[in-house]
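Budget justification, computational time. The allocation requested in the original proposal was used primarily to generate structure tokens for proteins on the priority list. As evidence of use, we reproduce two of the resulting records. The first is shown immediately below.
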Amino acid sequence: MNAVVSGKQPSFKISQRRSLARVAHTFRASALLFALICGYPILSHAQSQSPVTVNDASSQTGKLADLGSLATVSGVVVDQTGSLLEGAQVHLTRQGQALAPDTVSGEDGQFSFTGITPGAIKLEITAAGFSAPAVSATLHSGEAYVAPQVVLTIAAQTTTITVSAGMPRVEVAEFQIQDQEKQRVLGVVPNFYVSYVPNAISLTSKQKFELAYKASVDPFTFVGSGALAGIEQAADELNGYGQGMQGYGKRYGAAYGDVVIGTFLGSAVLPSALKQDPRYFYKGTGSKKSRILYALASPFICKGDNGNWQPNYSYLAGNFAGAGISNLYHPASDRGTNLMLQTASVRLGENALSAVLQEFLFRKLTRHLPPSER
């Protein structure tokens, strides 16, 4: 679900304590996630060199001359967002024959080969589900060749959509949405607002509203709202609604209303007006640090319908507007500017944490991924 449901306490102090507790819980979860993600030991690898034995001065001179004619090859690999790409496979060949053992790009996206004889070379760089055009060059004696920056894109052979030359973009986007609407964490929780296709076609206004409707009427949305209403009633939150079936019904309506209003405002109405894409675009490449920062920035930065990154006005305005609208139907004791700001701020934190989980956990648990991601 794209919107986060948040209940309120019957008084400012109780609501403040509850908001602080939720924030603390969010930060504890983030700290645990960071420990799990970043706690791997760093392995070092030392290469030993065997001493070169020479028999006489002339032999040594000849070998030094040969070494001086050898060249080096290096470069940097990035993904489509411009982030350094770690773990890409790099092959160096000449006329189909390997010139050196394959290597992989490091955490800084860099790769290098040394001791390469002069002549024509071909660089081929790939990663799972990604590819890039081969780079060809001619090495000169003793040259330190730096390849042009290599940008890996989604491999053409992994697409599952047959696109004819005249197929409208809206139809391509519709195919991609159909794949998204099958995505569920553990096969149950809808994961509709995550795109695993980094260059997915932007959505039309109609498609944005259809996706918001799909998320709002999903069975899990009703079940989740009911569970939240039960928890609030058991804790006597929103006590202005009272108890019994009538109180539960009011809490249920408020919980479901929060979800639907937040989803339509932040994912359909404002994205349509501001021409922004409401989806989270899974990164999945680069260093752990770059992926964490990318996820934490997602509530504040989004893709525009033009494919460019820009401030996420749609989510930010929709989040605060949704919190403000909830003042109209929540009990009087759970209204007010301070409570609205606290609720909106907590939702921002929850959204950022959810994005981090999307990067490192939810993809592994999501079923019915697009065929190219399975």
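The second record produced under the same allocation is shown here.
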Amino acid sequence: MTADLAPAVRARHMKSLLAALGEVAEVAAAELDPVQRAAIEEASGLEWLPFEANLTLTRAIYHRLGEAEAGAFFRRHTVAALGGPLLRGIVDAAVRLFGLDPGSWARWVPRGWEQVFRRVGTWSVATIPAGEARLALEDLPASALLDGCWPGSVASSLGALCDLARCQGGARLTVDAAHRRLEFQLRWQPKP
């Protein structure tokens, strides 16, 4: 597969993951192949990097922090990233149009995803009244679908929509390997 057709991740996302790790960054980043690490450090923010670097760094974060703390890390990181230069415009537009509603924001997940990932699945979103949205990420590279950590990082990241809306909630993950699909049930407590 040529580089233009291979699954990829924005360098800015990878750089922000390393920066967010703080003291743990050196340990987690040490698990990256030196060529991958150098590519992240030397890339401009808008460049595309091989998706495998994202998988490797995500696994390193889970191995270093453990499942619960890694999930919290990815949720916090997503809240911060949604306020950053790559995704802030999408968030501002969603707030203007929908206010603080995770279900309405869920419809914008595909647009944000396209800013961060290329050829790493296709989203579908169904919002259900009263505090629930169902999302699916299909046509994933086998490496993403079968990874022991990466799907959980996506579920944790979706939970950040609840944090941004200042309500209680999160996302539950179901892996449908037979259909190359991840399914997410985003649930929150609607505000009165």
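A brief technical remark on that second record: The mean pLDDT is 87.
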